[in-house]
Amino acid sequence: MTALFALATSLLWGLADFGGGLLTRRTPALTVVVASQSIAAVVLGAIVVATGGWSAAGPQLWVAFAAGLVGPIALLSFYKALALGPMGVVSPLGSLAVAVPITVGLVLGERPGLTQLAGIAIAVVGVVLAGGPQLRGALVQRQAIFLTLIAALGFGTVFALIAEASSSVTGLFLALFVQRVTNVVTGGAALYVSVKRGADALPEGGFPWGSLPALTFVGLADVAANGTYSVAAQHGPVTVAAVLASLYPVVTALAARGILSERLRGVQAAGAGLALVGTVLLATG
Q1: Do residues 127 and 250 make contact, with C-beta atoms less than 8 angstroms apart?
Q2: What sign has the CA pseudo-torsion 34, 35, 36, 37?
Q3: pTM of this prediction?
């Protein structure tokens, strides 16, 4: 069950990142984040009301609140780092996020077997290579490196927090709702400050209503990924769940290849292959 739900997480996050990347080509990134998360919050609010999720309220919601605060900060740091570039350095560095939940799992006493340890090492290397690392000729600003490491720490922290946000289905819906509302408030505040500083909140022509289905997909796919990861982490080793869930860059790269006909570099193809080998070892170890 852990492998199944963790792989579903990587699929959903990978497709959400791909969709979000396409949307930010036409609409400011902050607006994409706030709009997609707002849609997700509305849907989750309706589910919480329908399932009586309020009855599951408890101290664990503070964990969801913390995840909601950290997530937008990590995402905005990552976008800024990508803007500073080069992406061939920033993207693979962002994959270091997986180190946080792995460390948490080991501190909590998890001890993967030799096969799983080999799978973890191979899968992590595969994810980094799938990002298409720029191995030479890369001029990297210190600020880009710093922001990327902040983003990786933030993403990894969200991984760890989500795993502790709820222990029941109704509680999970409520925790995800709280997380999304916090995302919207935090992202909305950042958007307000950005506009005050002269940035555009919308593209020319106003709100892109034609992009509403894509925004909905991105928001709901992100929510579903958080949910499947929570289930994966609760039913098996966090070290395994985190590594399998971190395969989402491979999904994004393959989606770009299949939908946009982007050519995979040799290092990316090798990374995808290694990630697959690591996945098999983790699932069977």
Answers
A1: yes
A2: positive
A3: 0.80
